[in-house]
């Protein structure tokens, strides 16, 4: 039998993929690592088939390893008797707790088959929510910006976990970036906010991201309109 890491998408229940929905509906038990993912999962499976796993919000490596081992010990026996789903927001392989569970199962329960069902992650969903177009051939870097960090370097960045937007904003602006923020994009829980003003989202919220683009970046987007031809016709 199998443990499936299922990406629920960014938060709205109808952004779950068809494959993800089928996997959740067929699983004997669906584990949820948190309240928000559980809320999305219950749109597709009965609450009675959802189990909870505790992944503490801590940086203590010993506590984290103990939590991962406990989670694997809970999941493995169920997976030997049937199919298990681990439902996580976004994509299971992008900034996700599922990676910890998969590695722990591989280490301590190597007989368990583990597969991933991809989901719509904030890496792609943010473009529509923020009205951003990432052109063909353009580079886009992923960075983490927790606790006021302001990573710099690439021309375009998507920053996750922006928990101190004013501090992050100051560093990015000083480095020559234009920044747009999105909070709780495509989530039913809480108010969705899109803003260029970090003061509007000064309170800490894990589900805040930013798109940073160098203010000197040259954009030459091809269109069907050729102004040189128009000038010549005139």
Automatic annotation (TrEMBL):
Keyword match Electron transport: no
CDD domains the record matches: Precorrin_2_C20_MT
Alphabetic keyword roster: Cobalamin biosynthesis, Methyltransferase, Transferase
One GO biological process term: methylation
Gene3D superfamilies: Cobalt-precorrin-4 Transmethylase, Domain 1
Superkingdom to which the source organism belongs: Archaea
Domain Tetrapyrrole methylase span(s) in chain numbering: 2-136
Cited InterPro entries: 4pyrrol_Mease, 4pyrrol_Methylase_sf, 4pyrrole_Mease_sub1, CobI/CbiL, Uropor_MeTrfase_CS
Protein name: Precorrin-2/cobalt-factor-2 C20-methyltransferase
The species this protein was found in: Halobacterium salinarum (Halobacterium halobium)
């Amino acid at each position: 039998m199998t443990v499936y890491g299922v990406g629920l998408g960014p938060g709205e229940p109808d952004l779950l993929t068809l494959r993800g929905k089928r996997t959740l509906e067929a699983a004997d038990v669906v584990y949820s690592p948190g309240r928000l993912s559980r809320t999305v999962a219950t749109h597709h499976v009965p609450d009675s088939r959802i189990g909870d796993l505790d992944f503490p919000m801590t940086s203590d490596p010993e506590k984290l390893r103990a939590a991962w081992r406990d989670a694997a010990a809970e999941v493995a026996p169920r997976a030997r008797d049937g199919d298990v789903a681990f439902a996580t927001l976004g994509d299971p392989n992008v900034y996700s707790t599922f990676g910890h569970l998969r590695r722990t199962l591989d280490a301590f329960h190597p007989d368990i088959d583990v597969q991933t069902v991809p989901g719509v992650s904030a890496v792609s969903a943010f473009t529509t929510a923020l009205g951003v177009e990432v052109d063909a051939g353009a580079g886009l870097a992923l960075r983490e910006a927790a606790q006021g960090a302001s990573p710099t370097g690439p021309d375009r960045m998507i920053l996750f976990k922006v928990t101190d937007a004013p501090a992050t904003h100051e560093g990015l602006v000083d480095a020559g970036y234009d920044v747009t923020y999105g909070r709780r994009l495509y989530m039913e829980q809480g108010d969705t906010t899109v803003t260029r003003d970090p003061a509007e989202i000064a309170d800490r919220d894990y589900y805040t991201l930013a798109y940073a683009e160098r203010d000197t970046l040259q954009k030459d987007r091809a269109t069907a309109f050729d102004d040189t031809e128009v000038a010549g016709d005139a």
